TrEMBL record:
This is Leucine--tRNA ligase. The gene is leuS. GO terms for molecular function: leucine-tRNA ligase activity. CDD domains: Anticodon_Ia_Leu_BEm, LeuRS_core. The keyword Signal does not apply. The lineage of its organism: Bacteria, Pseudomonadati, Bacteroidota, Cytophagia, Cytophagales. Keywords: Aminoacyl-tRNA synthetase, ATP-binding, Cytoplasm, Ligase, Nucleotide-binding, Protein biosynthesis. Belongs to the class-I aminoacyl-tRNA synthetase family. It comes from Fontibacter flavus. The keyword Electron transport does not apply.
Length: 924
């Protein structure tokens, strides 16, 4: 073969890898393991664009590098294949989402295989496959059968809870449960009906059914999680979202709040992502206390982080949704207050939080009593109090809290200072300081005042110290078709699990993918959506699981994807353990990454897996943005003027397909055929060319800036694509796709190819020993590549390969001693060409079985030095001498140098000082 024919080479090696199962991973305790994982994609109809493979290329490079270092690597790929777009498409076209999904997966797989990834395709999983989701359903069942024991700080079986209830009710047990769980004795428990017992157990189960305020999206006909809602609109589709109370399944993730927080200390993730998780979990240390309502048998519970300011409380504020609001509104306030509540309720929490300017609220007419000083204070309803946080009620301290201050100012309520010196700069909250005007707290510092106030609460049984988490339980159901059915049926209105042996509970066929006429989810359309249990036939749950169910545990299934008796074989799970490198987008910071950590911890608690944290190290790749091109139409004509001349005309810019532009030059013929209305387009050119304008924007169809990796591969090859994506810049950075530099990368590969060939295009490898210079070039590249890969700095290695190949080309180096290791170090980045060169050099086995070359420091050590020779303080000559010479030898050489002799004129100098490896000073 003469020239570098990447198309043939790439197809050949992809087929070879597949046929020989090169990347098939098996447990091998004799080798260290490396588990490399990419966040698996949702197979959308649009296929991959060049932004998608960025992270996959980086992880592929790492896994190939790890193989060369002797690791046993697991590098799987699969599909998160339940989801909204396929279902929306099904609604529009009637095509079953399974068919759409299958087609999309096929397209994705072809595209991925084209890029030459070292994926173990045998391990592929699809979350929408019944063989997969039976285990998602199985995990759901384990959660349903578990509660959280606070004493042991782990999940335990609900049966053991029932045993405790039988013996001592719930008086002794410390378990996570709903706020409104009553206290009951063993007798009471034993006398309860089955229904009552089941209702109580739902308050403890780790997945449970409860009336919850949810984000309801009427346009999508489903509930959405907080992270699926952005500024009051659905993330997908941008439809309005309302707050609504509904019976919903939830996951008691809050039971794991503290462990989710602590676990962050043990993982190697970027600080911003950890911080986002910490904020989401939102731990606050404070106190909970009750205020008696005057003249009513009611107590209002508040959560405060500043109980030290209790003497500065001048009113209470309740969320508009608070349960007591109705009963607290007095007759004379009714009209104003109720009207206010109506308006406030329809604003989402997010809007209310985001909007700090609008101050709205209403006085209820009722009063509460501050138990510390017996004072009567007004009870207000206020927008800024959130129903879902803490107790949905606050003790307002306008002198020391911004929101309370603004509210008090607006409504003319009292502002009473109780902390010394904290009022300056208009900043109130968060500052400590000595307490004033506060009876027995006066004179104390914040911490002591808090402790003392909490002691007072506890003595008087009106409150206690409390740790509060902002995180809420995660709503687990969606009123959609294309998701996992819940393995639950209803008997007398109560949920029961189907038998494990009846799994998977397969998604039924329906005539349409829409809600039923009476508003039931699409599964309400299925003919026999019932369960045959021992005591009869019962209706099955009609909602399905949310998108995050299947993705919360897929990393375990990859280890053992075809196991029919377990979700993963324990031996395999122990061997592969946690993911060593997880690469994916930062947009999953609080969704997927919290849910999968939660499920892993739960599976650990029940002894199903050996690890508590699923992802040891994580890198979040930046997004590749589109680089849009523009043409400039002279208004009212079909004439387009080149970028440099556009200001001389009255023009309007128009997006043009980037695929008919090369190096910002428009291909005029292609432009004319791009759209029918452009067939007779005319151009005003600059030097015979049409130059387009350019701008960086999100990569999207509507901006005509989507670049398909298939096109790049066809034109330049997969190795060029891989190198180029890495060359674009640091992996974590957001950066535009700019094809302008791709020719350079492609030329580099041609040069690399040429190093191994003579001018006639024949393979030509010399067996001669390499020179020092050649070894130096090689070893500095080995070192750089190794350091870069260890630091996940991919772009810089590409640059060093280029330098290396340029240097070797200049030296006309074709020696095996250099070119073999060079092929190996390039192979993680450009595996096809490396395989081909490796085999051309006579190797029978894939380059993947080679060893990463060992870096030898000695080749980098300089063995000579250019000595400046200074005569009477001025450098008069330069002399290159071996570093192995002694001081005397250096002196002798310096003095016998003709340039130096000219200055000394044959005289013996007064003094000669030799600093070895640096300088020679001569004084005459
Ligand atoms: C009195 C006080 C005085 C407060 C002071 C703060 C400063 P984090 O840190 O976020 O937990 N709060 C409690 N529940 C609330 C709710 N449902 N909606 C809105 N605000 C609520 O904040 C806790 C503080 O936020 C609590 O402490 C309470 O105001 C308020 F100088 O109580 B504080």
């Amino acid at each position: 073969m003469a020239d570098y024919h990447f198309q043939e080479i790439e197809k050949k090696w992809q087929a070879y890898w597949e046929k020989n199962q090169i990347f098939n991973a098996q447990v091998d305790p004799s080798k260290p393991k490396f588990y490399s994982l990419d966040m698996f994609p949702y197979p959308s109809g649009a296929g991959l664009h060049v932004g998608h493979p960025l992270g996959y290329i980086a992880s592929d490079i790492i896994t190939r590098y790890k193989r060369l270092q002797g690791f046993n690597v697991l590098h799987p790929m699969g599909y998160d294949s339940f989801g909204l777009p396929a279902e929306q498409y099904a609604i529009q076209t009637g095509q079953h989402p399974a068919i759409t999904t299958e087609q999309n997966i096929k397209r994705y797989t072809d595209q991925l295989k084209n890029i030459g990834f070292a994926f173990d395709w045998d391990k592929e999983v699809r979350t929408s496959d019944p063989d997969y989701y039976r285990w998602t359903q199985w995990i759901f069942m384990q959660l349903f059968n578990s509660y959280y024991d606070k004493t042991e700080d782990k999940a335990k079986s609900i049966d053991s809870l029932v045993q405790q209830f039988k013996v001592s009710g719930n008086t002794i047990i410390e378990a996570v449960c709903d706020e409104d769980t009553p206290v009951f004795s063993a007798e009471a428990w034993n006398e309860m009906s089955e229904k009552e017992q089941q209702e109580l157990l739902l308050k403890y189960r780790l997945t449970f059914l409860a009336e919850t305020t949810v984000n309801w999206c009427p346009a999508l006909g489903t509930v959405l999680s907080n992270d699926e809602v952005k500024d009051g609109f659905s993330e997908r589709g941008g439809h309005p979202v309302e707050r609504k109370k509904m019976m919903q399944w939830s996951m008691r993730i809050t039971a794991y709040a503290e462990r989710l927080l602590q676990g962050l200390e043990s993982v190697d993730w970027s600080e911003p992502i950890k911080e986002m998780q910490r904020n989401w979990i939102g731990k606050s240390i404070g106190a909970e206390m009750v205020f008696q309502v005057k003249g009513q048998n009611k107590q209002i519970k508040v959560f405060t982080t500043r109980i030290d300011t209790i003497y500065g409380v001048t009113y209470l504020a309740l969320a508009p949704e608070h349960d007591y609001v109705k009963e607290l509104i007095t007759e004379d306030q009714r009209e104003i207050a109720e009207a206010y509540v109506e308006v406030a309720k329809n604003r989402s929490e997010r809007d209310r939080m985001a909007d700090v300017k609008t101050i709205s609220g209403a006085f209820t007419g009722s009063y509460a009593i501050n138990p510390f000083n017996g004072e009567e204070i007004q009870i207000w309803i206020a927008d800024y109090v959130l129903a879902g946080y803490g107790t949905g009620a606050v003790m307002a301290v306008p002198a020391h809290d911004d929101r309370d201050y603004n509210f008090a100012k607006h409504f003319g309520l009292e502002i009473r200072q109780v902390i010394e010196g904290s009022m300056e700069n208009g900043s109130f909250a968060g500052k400590g300081g000595t307490i004033i005007n506060s009876d027995f707290l006066t004179g104390l510092e914040m911490k002591d005042a808090m402790n003392k106030a909490i002691a007072f609460l506890e003595e008087n049984k009106i409150g206690k110290g409390k740790i509060q988490y902002r995180m809420r339980d995660a709503i687990f159901t969606r009123q959609r078709y294309w998701g996992e059915p819940l393995p639950v049926y209803f008997k007398e209105g109560l949920p029961y699990l189907i038998k494990e042996t009846d799994l998977p509970l397969v998604l039924p066929e329906v005539d349409k993918y829409l809600p039923t006429e009476d508003g039931e989810p699409p599964l309400g359309r299925a003919k026999d959506w019932t369960y045959q249990s021992e005591d009869g036939e019962f209706p099955l749950e009609k909602s399905t699981m949310p998108g995050w169910a299947g993705s919360s545990w897929y990393f375990f299934r990859y280890m053992d994807p075809r196991n029919e008796t377990k979700f993963v074989d324990p031996e395999k799970e122990k061997y592969w353990g946690a993911v060593d490198l997880y690469i994916g987008g930062a947009e999953h910071a609080t969704g997927h990454l919290l849910y999968s950590r939660f499920w892993t911890k739960f599976l650990y608690d029940i002894g199903a897996v050996s690890i508590e944290e699923p992802f040891q190290k994580m890198i979040n790749q930046g997004m590749i943005q589109g680089r849009s091109n523009f043409v400039y139409r002279v208004k009212g004509t079909n004439t387009f003027v080149s970028y440099g001349l556009k200001d001389q005309y009255d023009t309007s810019a128009m997006h043009v397909d980037v695929n008919i532009v090369h190096n910002d030059q428009l291909n005029l013929d292609k432009f004319k055929t791009w759209r029918p209305d452009l067939a007779d387009a005319e151009f005003i050119l600059e030097e015979g060319k049409y130059t387009c304008g350019a701008e960086v924007e999100k990569m999207s169809k509507s901006k005509y800036n989507v670049v398909n990796p298939d096109d790049i591969i066809e034109r330049y090859g997969a190795d060029t694509l891989r190198l180029y994506e890495m060359f674009l810049g640091p992996l974590e950075q957001f950066k535009p796709w700019n094809t302008n530099g791709i020719d350079g990368v492609s030329k580099f590969l041609k040069k690399l190819w040429k190093l191994y060939h003579d001018n006639q295009g024949n393979v030509s490898i010399s067996e001669e020993n390499a020179s020092k210079e050649e070894l130096k070039t090689l070893h500095k590249t080995i070192k750089k590549t190794q350091d870069d890969l260890d630091n996940h700095s991919f772009n810089t290695s590409v640059a060093s390969f280029m330098i290396c190949v340029n240097e070797l080309t200049a030296m006309k180096c074709n020696k095996r001693e250099i070119l073999e290791p060079l092929a190996v170090i390039v192979s993680p980045y450009a595996p096809h060409i490396a395989e081909e060169l490796w085999s051309l050099m006579g190797h029978q086995q894939s380059i993947i079985y080679a060893a990463f070359p060992e870096f030898k420091e000695e080749y980098l050590v300089e063995n000579s030095h250019e000595y400046p020779i200074s005569i009477n303080g001025k450098v008069r000559a330069k002399l290159s001498l071996s570093l192995s010479l002694s001081k005397e030898e250096v002196e002798k050489a310096a003095l016998s140098d003709p340039a130096v002799k000219k200055w000394t004129e044959g005289n013996t100098p007064k003094k000669v000082i030799v600093v070895p490896g640096k300088i020679v000073n001569i004084v005459i």
